[in-house]
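STRUCTURE:
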Protein backbone atom coordinates (compact mmCIF):
# COMPACT_ATOMS: atom_id res chain seq x y z
CA UNK A 1 0.00 0.00 0.00
CA UNK A 2 1.05 3.58 -0.45
CA UNK A 3 -0.10 7.17 -0.81
CA UNK A 4 0.59 10.23 -2.93
CA UNK A 5 2.17 13.24 -1.25
CA UNK A 6 2.48 16.72 -2.74
CA UNK A 7 5.57 18.67 -1.79
CA UNK A 8 3.81 22.01 -1.68
CA UNK A 9 7.09 23.95 -1.37
CA UNK A 10 8.05 22.80 -4.89
CA UNK A 11 4.83 24.10 -6.47
CA UNK A 12 5.16 27.41 -8.29
CA UNK A 13 3.58 29.44 -11.09
CA UNK A 14 5.83 27.87 -13.73
CA UNK A 15 4.87 24.25 -13.05
CA UNK A 16 1.33 24.34 -11.64
CA UNK A 17 -0.36 24.24 -15.06
CA UNK A 18 1.85 21.33 -16.13
CA UNK A 19 0.94 19.44 -12.95
CA UNK A 20 -2.81 19.97 -13.39
CA UNK A 21 -2.70 18.83 -17.01
CA UNK A 22 -0.60 15.70 -16.48
CA UNK A 23 -3.38 13.74 -14.73
CA UNK A 24 -5.66 12.02 -17.29
CA UNK A 25 -8.39 11.61 -14.65
CA UNK A 26 -8.55 15.23 -13.48
CA UNK A 27 -7.71 14.11 -9.96
CA UNK A 28 -5.30 16.95 -9.16
CA UNK A 29 -6.81 20.26 -8.02
CA UNK A 30 -5.31 23.62 -7.03
CA UNK A 31 -7.42 25.24 -4.31
CA UNK A 32 -6.57 28.13 -2.00
CA UNK A 33 -2.94 28.00 -3.02
CA UNK A 34 -2.57 24.26 -2.31
CA UNK A 35 -2.44 21.17 -4.51
CA UNK A 36 -4.91 18.45 -3.53
CA UNK A 37 -5.63 14.96 -4.86
CA UNK A 38 -9.34 14.16 -5.10
CA UNK A 39 -11.30 10.90 -5.19
CA UNK A 40 -10.76 10.55 -8.94
CA UNK A 41 -7.17 9.39 -8.36
CA UNK A 42 -6.46 5.90 -9.75
CA UNK A 43 -3.00 5.72 -8.14
CA UNK A 44 -1.45 5.37 -11.63
CA UNK A 45 1.54 7.53 -10.56
CA UNK A 46 1.69 9.40 -13.88
CA UNK A 47 1.95 12.64 -11.90
CA UNK A 48 5.09 11.27 -10.23
CA UNK A 49 6.69 9.92 -13.42
CA UNK A 50 5.77 12.65 -15.91
CA UNK A 51 4.84 15.63 -13.76
CA UNK A 52 7.15 18.43 -12.60
CA UNK A 53 10.19 16.98 -10.84
CA UNK A 54 9.98 16.84 -7.06
CA UNK A 55 6.35 17.93 -6.76
CA UNK A 56 4.42 14.65 -6.46
CA UNK A 57 5.84 11.72 -4.52
CA UNK A 58 4.57 8.18 -3.92
CA UNK A 59 5.32 6.90 -0.42
CA UNK A 60 5.00 3.25 0.55
CA UNK A 61 3.19 2.73 3.83
CA UNK A 62 3.94 -0.11 6.19
CA UNK A 63 1.29 -2.82 6.16
CA UNK A 64 0.44 -4.42 9.45
CA UNK A 65 0.29 -8.18 8.99
CA UNK A 66 -2.18 -10.38 10.80
CA UNK A 67 -1.24 -13.55 12.69
CA UNK A 68 -3.06 -16.07 10.52
CA UNK A 69 -2.62 -18.86 13.07
CA UNK A 70 -5.14 -17.11 15.34
CA UNK A 71 -7.88 -17.33 12.70
CA UNK A 72 -9.40 -20.75 11.96
CA UNK A 73 -12.47 -22.04 10.22
CA UNK A 74 -14.72 -21.20 7.27
CA UNK A 75 -17.99 -19.53 8.29
CA UNK A 76 -21.22 -19.21 6.32
CA UNK A 77 -23.83 -16.57 7.06
CA UNK A 78 -27.27 -18.20 7.11
CA UNK A 79 -29.55 -16.14 4.88
CA UNK A 80 -33.20 -16.61 5.77
CA UNK A 81 -36.65 -15.03 5.91
CA UNK A 82 -38.55 -15.80 9.11
CA UNK A 83 -36.46 -18.92 9.60
CA UNK A 84 -36.90 -20.23 6.06
CA UNK A 85 -33.32 -20.73 4.91
CA UNK A 86 -32.37 -19.45 1.45
CA UNK A 87 -30.92 -22.28 -0.70
CA UNK A 88 -27.79 -20.20 -1.40
CA UNK A 89 -26.79 -21.00 2.20
CA UNK A 90 -26.64 -24.73 1.42
CA UNK A 91 -24.54 -24.03 -1.67
CA UNK A 92 -22.09 -22.00 0.40
CA UNK A 93 -21.88 -24.76 3.00
CA UNK A 94 -20.85 -27.15 0.22
CA UNK A 95 -18.12 -24.78 -0.94
CA UNK A 96 -17.03 -24.08 2.66
CA UNK A 97 -16.54 -27.80 3.26
CA UNK A 98 -14.45 -28.06 0.11
CA UNK A 99 -12.27 -25.09 1.10
CA UNK A 100 -11.95 -26.26 4.69
CA UNK A 101 -10.66 -29.68 3.62
CA UNK A 102 -7.59 -28.05 2.05
CA UNK A 103 -6.37 -26.56 5.35
CA UNK A 104 -8.14 -28.86 7.83
CA UNK A 105 -10.48 -26.14 9.12
CA UNK A 106 -13.90 -26.59 10.74
CA UNK A 107 -17.03 -25.26 9.01
CA UNK A 108 -19.25 -22.88 10.94
CA UNK A 109 -22.64 -21.28 10.33
CA UNK A 110 -23.87 -18.12 11.99
CA UNK A 111 -27.66 -17.98 12.23
CA UNK A 112 -29.30 -14.72 13.40
CA UNK A 113 -33.03 -14.34 14.05
CA UNK A 114 -35.88 -15.32 16.37
CA UNK A 115 -37.28 -18.78 17.12
CA UNK A 116 -34.69 -20.34 14.84
CA UNK A 117 -32.96 -22.91 17.02
CA UNK A 118 -35.06 -25.76 15.61
CA UNK A 119 -34.32 -24.59 12.06
CA UNK A 120 -30.61 -24.46 12.91
CA UNK A 121 -30.63 -28.21 13.54
CA UNK A 122 -31.31 -28.78 9.83
CA UNK A 123 -27.93 -27.25 8.96
CA UNK A 124 -26.15 -30.04 10.84
CA UNK A 125 -27.42 -32.49 8.20
CA UNK A 126 -25.15 -30.79 5.65
CA UNK A 127 -21.83 -31.38 7.36
CA UNK A 128 -21.54 -28.20 9.44
CA UNK A 129 -19.31 -28.63 12.49
CA UNK A 130 -20.93 -25.92 14.61
CA UNK A 131 -23.87 -23.56 14.24
CA UNK A 132 -23.72 -20.35 16.27
CA UNK A 133 -27.28 -19.18 16.93
CA UNK A 134 -28.25 -15.64 17.94
CA UNK A 135 -31.91 -16.05 18.89
CA UNK A 136 -33.66 -12.99 20.29
CA UNK A 137 -36.99 -11.25 19.70
CA UNK A 138 -35.03 -8.08 18.81
CA UNK A 139 -33.50 -10.02 15.90
CA UNK A 140 -36.84 -11.13 14.45
CA UNK A 141 -36.68 -8.58 11.62
CA UNK A 142 -33.52 -7.82 9.67
CA UNK A 143 -32.09 -4.52 10.88
CA UNK A 144 -28.58 -3.63 9.84
CA UNK A 145 -27.34 -2.41 13.25
CA UNK A 146 -28.40 -5.47 15.26
CA UNK A 147 -27.35 -8.03 12.65
CA UNK A 148 -23.96 -6.34 12.26
CA UNK A 149 -23.54 -6.40 16.05
CA UNK A 150 -24.28 -10.13 16.08
CA UNK A 151 -21.79 -10.79 13.27
CA UNK A 152 -19.17 -8.67 15.06
CA UNK A 153 -19.70 -10.64 18.26
CA UNK A 154 -19.38 -13.94 16.39
CA UNK A 155 -16.16 -12.90 14.65
CA UNK A 156 -14.56 -11.60 17.83
CA UNK A 157 -15.35 -14.82 19.70
CA UNK A 158 -14.72 -17.44 17.01
CA UNK A 159 -12.19 -15.71 14.72
CA UNK A 160 -13.09 -17.47 11.45
CA UNK A 161 -10.45 -17.20 8.74
CA UNK A 162 -13.02 -16.72 5.96
CA UNK A 163 -16.70 -15.79 5.81
CA UNK A 164 -18.98 -16.62 2.86
CA UNK A 165 -22.18 -14.64 2.37
CA UNK A 166 -24.93 -15.12 -0.19
CA UNK A 167 -25.26 -12.23 -2.65
CA UNK A 168 -28.90 -11.69 -1.74
CA UNK A 169 -30.49 -8.37 -0.81
CA UNK A 170 -29.66 -9.01 2.85
CA UNK A 171 -26.17 -10.36 2.18
CA UNK A 172 -25.21 -7.43 -0.02
CA UNK A 173 -26.25 -5.07 2.77
CA UNK A 174 -24.65 -6.92 5.67
CA UNK A 175 -21.31 -8.06 4.23
CA UNK A 176 -19.83 -4.61 3.44
CA UNK A 177 -20.90 -3.28 6.84
CA UNK A 178 -19.11 -6.13 8.61
CA UNK A 179 -16.03 -5.87 6.37
CA UNK A 180 -15.74 -2.15 7.11
CA UNK A 181 -16.01 -2.75 10.84
CA UNK A 182 -13.06 -5.14 10.73
CA UNK A 183 -11.14 -3.13 8.10
CA UNK A 184 -10.84 -6.19 5.92
CA UNK A 185 -11.39 -6.96 2.25
CA UNK A 186 -14.64 -8.04 0.61
CA UNK A 187 -14.99 -9.42 -2.91
CA UNK A 188 -18.50 -9.28 -4.35
CA UNK A 189 -20.17 -11.79 -6.68
CA UNK A 190 -17.35 -14.35 -6.76
CA UNK A 191 -17.72 -17.12 -9.34
CA UNK A 192 -14.80 -19.27 -8.14
CA UNK A 193 -13.29 -19.71 -4.67
CA UNK A 194 -10.04 -21.55 -3.94
CA UNK A 195 -7.97 -22.04 -0.81
CA UNK A 196 -4.19 -21.75 -0.53
CA UNK A 197 -2.29 -23.89 1.94
CA UNK A 198 -1.36 -20.74 3.86
CA UNK A 199 -5.14 -20.17 4.43
CA UNK A 200 -5.39 -17.26 1.96
CA UNK A 201 -8.75 -17.40 0.17
CA UNK A 202 -8.43 -16.86 -3.60
CA UNK A 203 -11.55 -14.96 -4.65
CA UNK A 204 -12.10 -15.03 -8.40
CA UNK A 205 -14.63 -12.92 -10.27
CA UNK A 206 -15.02 -11.28 -13.70
CA UNK A 207 -13.67 -7.73 -13.88
CA UNK A 208 -13.43 -4.88 -16.39
CA UNK A 209 -16.74 -5.76 -18.00
CA UNK A 210 -15.96 -9.47 -18.02
CA UNK A 211 -12.77 -9.10 -20.04
CA UNK A 212 -10.59 -10.66 -17.35
CA UNK A 213 -11.00 -13.01 -14.40
CA UNK A 214 -9.51 -11.21 -11.40
CA UNK A 215 -7.88 -13.24 -8.62
CA UNK A 216 -8.16 -11.35 -5.35
CA UNK A 217 -6.57 -12.23 -2.00
CA UNK A 218 -6.39 -10.54 1.41
CA UNK A 219 -3.00 -11.70 2.71
CA UNK A 220 -2.72 -9.12 5.49
CA UNK A 221 -6.21 -9.03 7.00
CA UNK A 222 -8.71 -11.40 8.57
CA UNK A 223 -11.46 -12.42 8.26
CA UNK A 224 -11.50 -12.78 4.50
CA UNK A 225 -14.97 -12.10 3.08
CA UNK A 226 -16.71 -12.95 -0.16
CA UNK A 227 -20.27 -12.85 -1.48
CA UNK A 228 -21.48 -15.47 -3.94
CA UNK A 229 -24.61 -15.49 -6.06
CA UNK A 230 -27.28 -18.16 -5.89
CA UNK A 231 -26.83 -21.07 -8.34
CA UNK A 232 -23.04 -20.67 -8.63
CA UNK A 233 -21.91 -23.39 -6.19
CA UNK A 234 -23.19 -26.92 -5.61
CA UNK A 235 -25.10 -27.80 -2.46
CA UNK A 236 -24.01 -30.99 -0.65
CA UNK A 237 -26.36 -33.92 -0.23
CA UNK A 238 -28.36 -34.00 2.97
CA UNK A 239 -26.97 -36.53 5.43
CA UNK A 240 -29.36 -38.74 7.33
CA UNK A 241 -27.55 -38.49 10.65
CA UNK A 242 -26.67 -34.94 11.70
CA UNK A 243 -23.22 -34.19 13.04
CA UNK A 244 -21.81 -31.17 14.78
CA UNK A 245 -23.35 -29.05 17.49
CA UNK A 246 -25.40 -25.92 18.09
CA UNK A 247 -24.07 -23.10 20.28
CA UNK A 248 -26.53 -20.48 21.48
CA UNK A 249 -24.94 -17.04 21.81
CA UNK A 250 -26.10 -14.01 23.74
CA UNK A 251 -25.72 -10.35 22.83
CA UNK A 252 -25.45 -7.50 25.29
CA UNK A 253 -28.78 -5.57 25.55
CA UNK A 254 -27.29 -2.32 24.21
CA UNK A 255 -26.19 -4.10 21.03
CA UNK A 256 -29.78 -5.12 20.35
CA UNK A 257 -30.92 -1.50 20.14
CA UNK A 258 -31.65 -0.05 16.72
CA UNK A 259 -32.64 3.30 15.28
CA UNK A 260 -34.96 1.40 12.94
CA UNK A 261 -38.45 0.41 14.06
CA UNK A 262 -40.26 -2.15 11.91
CA UNK A 263 -43.91 -1.10 11.82
CA UNK A 264 -45.19 -3.51 9.21
CA UNK A 265 -43.88 -6.25 6.94
CA UNK A 266 -45.61 -6.61 3.58
CA UNK A 267 -44.76 -9.83 1.82
CA UNK A 268 -43.78 -9.51 -1.80
CA UNK A 269 -45.91 -11.38 -4.30
CA UNK A 270 -44.20 -14.60 -5.33
CA UNK A 271 -43.04 -14.27 -8.92
CA UNK A 272 -41.61 -16.66 -11.47
CA UNK A 273 -37.85 -16.72 -10.97
CA UNK A 274 -35.51 -17.84 -13.75
CA UNK A 275 -32.92 -18.84 -11.13
CA UNK A 276 -35.24 -21.68 -10.08
CA UNK A 277 -36.15 -22.80 -13.61
CA UNK A 278 -35.23 -26.32 -14.72
CA UNK A 279 -35.54 -25.49 -18.43
CA UNK A 280 -34.79 -22.11 -20.02
CA UNK A 281 -35.04 -20.81 -23.57
CA UNK A 282 -32.61 -17.89 -23.76
CA UNK A 283 -32.74 -15.39 -26.60
CA UNK A 284 -30.16 -12.99 -27.99
CA UNK A 285 -29.79 -10.26 -30.61
CA UNK A 286 -30.92 -12.61 -33.37
CA UNK A 287 -34.52 -12.04 -32.25
CA UNK A 288 -35.40 -9.00 -34.31
CA UNK A 289 -38.88 -7.95 -33.18
CA UNK A 290 -41.73 -8.62 -30.78
CA UNK A 291 -43.67 -10.66 -33.34
CA UNK A 292 -40.79 -13.17 -33.42
CA UNK A 293 -41.40 -13.88 -29.73
CA UNK A 294 -44.38 -16.07 -30.68
CA UNK A 295 -41.95 -18.59 -32.17
CA UNK A 296 -39.88 -18.57 -28.97
CA UNK A 297 -43.00 -18.87 -26.80
CA UNK A 298 -44.15 -21.94 -28.76
CA UNK A 299 -40.83 -23.66 -28.06
CA UNK A 300 -40.88 -22.66 -24.41
CA UNK A 301 -44.45 -23.90 -23.92
CA UNK A 302 -43.65 -27.31 -25.40
CA UNK A 303 -40.61 -27.67 -23.12
CA UNK A 304 -42.38 -26.19 -20.06
CA UNK A 305 -39.54 -23.67 -20.02
CA UNK A 306 -39.10 -20.08 -18.92
CA UNK A 307 -37.96 -17.46 -21.43
CA UNK A 308 -34.90 -15.41 -20.54
CA UNK A 309 -32.23 -13.54 -22.49
CA UNK A 310 -29.37 -11.13 -22.78
CA UNK A 311 -29.13 -7.45 -21.88
CA UNK A 312 -29.86 -6.10 -25.42
CA UNK A 313 -33.23 -7.88 -25.32
CA UNK A 314 -34.06 -6.14 -22.04
CA UNK A 315 -33.05 -2.78 -23.49
CA UNK A 316 -35.21 -3.49 -26.56
CA UNK A 317 -38.19 -4.15 -24.28
CA UNK A 318 -38.66 -7.73 -25.46
CA UNK A 319 -38.11 -9.28 -22.01
CA UNK A 320 -38.33 -7.77 -18.49
CA UNK A 321 -35.14 -7.00 -16.55
CA UNK A 322 -35.81 -9.84 -14.09
CA UNK A 323 -35.43 -12.26 -17.03
CA UNK A 324 -31.88 -11.15 -17.88
CA UNK A 325 -29.08 -13.68 -17.48
CA UNK A 326 -25.52 -12.54 -16.77
CA UNK A 327 -23.31 -10.43 -14.55
CA UNK A 328 -25.80 -7.57 -14.46
CA UNK A 329 -28.78 -9.95 -14.34
CA UNK A 330 -29.53 -13.32 -12.74
CA UNK A 331 -27.44 -16.45 -12.39
CA UNK A 332 -29.11 -19.67 -13.53
CA UNK A 333 -28.29 -23.36 -13.36
CA UNK A 334 -31.10 -25.26 -15.14
CA UNK A 335 -31.08 -28.86 -16.29
CA UNK A 336 -31.34 -27.54 -19.87
CA UNK A 337 -30.79 -24.13 -21.42
CA UNK A 338 -31.33 -23.48 -25.13
CA UNK A 339 -29.47 -20.40 -26.37
CA UNK A 340 -31.06 -18.92 -29.49
CA UNK A 341 -28.92 -16.49 -31.47
CA UNK A 342 -26.66 -15.63 -28.54
CA UNK A 343 -23.04 -14.78 -29.34
CA UNK A 344 -21.73 -15.87 -25.93
CA UNK A 345 -20.22 -12.75 -24.36
CA UNK A 346 -18.39 -13.34 -21.09
CA UNK A 347 -20.99 -11.32 -19.19
CA UNK A 348 -23.76 -13.70 -20.30
CA UNK A 349 -21.78 -16.93 -20.03
CA UNK A 350 -20.78 -16.17 -16.42
CA UNK A 351 -24.45 -16.31 -15.52
CA UNK A 352 -25.28 -19.69 -17.08
CA UNK A 353 -22.14 -21.78 -17.62
CA UNK A 354 -22.95 -24.07 -14.68
CA UNK A 355 -26.09 -25.38 -16.41
CA UNK A 356 -26.34 -29.18 -16.71
CA UNK A 357 -26.87 -29.07 -20.49
CA UNK A 358 -26.32 -26.13 -22.82
CA UNK A 359 -27.73 -26.33 -26.36
CA UNK A 360 -26.83 -23.44 -28.69
CA UNK A 361 -28.16 -22.40 -32.09
CA UNK A 362 -26.30 -19.69 -33.97
CA UNK A 363 -25.63 -19.06 -37.66
CA UNK A 364 -22.10 -17.86 -36.89
CA UNK A 365 -19.91 -20.95 -36.54
CA UNK A 366 -17.30 -18.86 -34.70
CA UNK A 367 -19.71 -17.66 -32.02
CA UNK A 368 -18.19 -17.90 -28.54
CA UNK A 369 -21.28 -19.65 -27.20
CA UNK A 370 -20.18 -22.85 -28.97
CA UNK A 371 -17.11 -23.00 -26.69
CA UNK A 372 -19.45 -23.21 -23.70
CA UNK A 373 -22.26 -25.34 -25.15
CA UNK A 374 -22.48 -29.11 -24.81
CA UNK A 375 -24.41 -29.31 -28.08
CA UNK A 376 -24.64 -26.83 -30.94
CA UNK A 377 -26.24 -26.27 -34.33
CA UNK A 378 -24.84 -23.81 -36.84
CA UNK A 379 -27.84 -22.33 -38.61
CA UNK A 380 -30.59 -19.71 -38.70
CA UNK A 381 -32.92 -19.84 -35.69
CA UNK A 382 -35.81 -18.75 -37.96
CA UNK A 383 -35.41 -22.03 -39.84
CA UNK A 384 -34.38 -24.35 -37.00
CA UNK A 385 -36.75 -23.30 -34.19
CA UNK A 386 -39.98 -23.82 -36.23
CA UNK A 387 -38.65 -27.26 -37.20
CA UNK A 388 -37.92 -28.05 -33.53
CA UNK A 389 -41.44 -26.97 -32.60
CA UNK A 390 -42.89 -29.18 -35.32
CA UNK A 391 -40.85 -32.20 -34.22
CA UNK A 392 -41.79 -31.70 -30.55
CA UNK A 393 -45.47 -31.51 -31.44
CA UNK A 394 -45.19 -34.71 -33.45
CA UNK A 395 -43.58 -36.53 -30.52
CA UNK A 396 -46.26 -35.24 -28.16
CA UNK A 397 -43.89 -33.22 -25.97
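SEQUENCE:
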Amino acid sequence: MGKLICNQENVNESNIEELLNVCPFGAIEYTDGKVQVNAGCKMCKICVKKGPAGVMEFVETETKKVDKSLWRGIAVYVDHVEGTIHPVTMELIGKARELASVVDFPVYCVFIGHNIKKKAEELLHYGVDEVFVYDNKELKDYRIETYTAAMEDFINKVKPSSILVGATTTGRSLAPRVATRFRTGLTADCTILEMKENTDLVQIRPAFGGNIMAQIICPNTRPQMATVRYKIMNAPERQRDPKGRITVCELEPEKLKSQIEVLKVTKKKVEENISDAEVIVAIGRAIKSEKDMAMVQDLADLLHAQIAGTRPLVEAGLIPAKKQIGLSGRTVKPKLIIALGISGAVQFVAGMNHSDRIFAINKDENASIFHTAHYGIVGDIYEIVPQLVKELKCTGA
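REMARK: The chain is about 25% helix and 25% strand.
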